[in-house]
Specification:
The protein is an alpha+beta fold. The chain has helices at 9-12, 26-36, 57-65, 93-103, 122-129, and strands spanning 17-20, 40-43, 53-55, 107-112, 115-121. The protein has a 3-stranded mixed sheet with strand order 1-2-3. A two-stranded antiparallel ribbon has the order 4-5. It is globular and about 55 Å long.
Length: 133
Amino acid sequence: MSERKIVRARDVMSQDYAMVDGLITIREAISIFKDKQASVLLINKRNEDDEYGILLLSDIAKKVLAQDRSPERVNVYEVMSKPVIGVDPQMDVRYCARLFDNFGLSNAPVLQNGEVVGVVGYNQIVLDGLLTE
């Protein structure tokens, strides 16, 4: 039986995110999702005592589209989740998967010294973390 190689969040994290301000509209957020081909939008802190926020396309579908709200009249801060649960770059992807399951997450920023260095989601955890050579 071979020893299992530990795959860490830093090994599977991606850069397919964009940092935005919470005051932009959902219309602007959708444009950023498209232009940057981002899987998530992370909302910048307003000051050093603030926390990051996160916006997923599913948030927009549930809280804007399904409720027939106008994307031009809804701001990101009204729809985003805040504070985010961050993942340490050193975390084993098995624990990332457990964390996601325990808290109902699908994506999380990877935070090093309080700064975003990437994002990790179920897709990366499974596709890049489960079957390693």
